[in-house]
Design goal:
The protein is built from four helices and no strands. With 82 residues, it is mainly α. The N and C termini lie far apart (38 Å).
């Protein structure tokens, strides 16, 4: 069990979907320049690539964690200024 791991219990599909919702495919491709994000991107094709490519999956996981920190920071700034 990994209660402190924010990725625990999340599927790779969830990570990719939330990253696309937050950054869009273009933003995702700029941050992680791999063909599955730049050329005719889809969640399905991205998952197929990421499951076979550990280094790319690590980059996606790292960007997801960065996105979470960014969102938390933005929410903290909003509530502090209210």
């Amino acid at each position: 069990m990994q209660p402190r791991n924010p990725l625990h219990g999340l599927t790779l599909e969830t990570l990719v979907t939330e990253l696309v919702e937050h950054y869009g495919w273009d933003g995702l491709a700029k941050r992680i320049p791999v063909r599955c994000f730049t050329s005719d991107p889809s969640v399905k094709s991205s998952l197929k690539f990421l499951r076979k490519t550990p280094w790319a999956r690590e980059k996606v996981e790292g960007l997801y964690l960065f996105m979470l920190r960014d969102i938390r920071r933005a929410q903290g700034t909003r509530s502090a200024s209210s």
